[in-house]
Write a structure and sequence with these properties.
Helix content is about 50%, strand content about 10%. It is built from three helices and two strands. The longest helix is centred in the N-terminal third of the chain and has 24 residues, at about 25-45. The two termini are about 30 Å apart. The chain has about 110 residues and is mainly alpha-helical. The relative contact order is 0.14. It has helices at about 5-15, 25-45, 70-90, and strands at about 55-60, 65-70.
Length: about 110
């Protein structure tokens, strides 16, 4: 399916995908899988397993500035996006959304 998926994304795609999914559901599943991969990468940064994300930008007077992304905030936003995508997949299948009291595997991200 989507060749750019990592290990987490592939597992999530396989868990969500059904043989009779329409294109609109397939697109949501692929995007959810990509978000899953991003969350894995963000978690690696937060736990120190990967290098911090930073970039050089030009300052006001031509000076170089180092900008460090807010990784924890981004991880929380990506987790919320993933929950919304998974919920949309369930709604499109005319299923009820997963029980909010049931563990969803995302509790460790907060």
């Amino acid at each position: 399916m989507a060749s750019d998926l990592g290990k987490t994304g592939e597992k999530l795609r396989a868990a969500l995908e059904l043989d009779d999914d329409g294109y609109e559901i397939t697109v949501l599943i692929i995007e959810a899988a990509r978000v899953g991969d991003r969350l894995e990468q963000l978690n690696s940064i937060l736990t120190g397993e990967a290098a911090m994300w930073a970039r050089l930008t030009n300052g006001r007077e031509g000076d170089l500035e180092i900008r460090v992304d807010n990784v924890l905030q981004e991880a929380r936003q990506q987790a919320a996006t993933l929950r919304q995508l998974i919920g949309a997949v369930h709604r499109l299948r005319n299923d009820s959304e997963p029980d909010p009291d049931e563990p969803d595997g995302l509790a460790d991200l907060s």
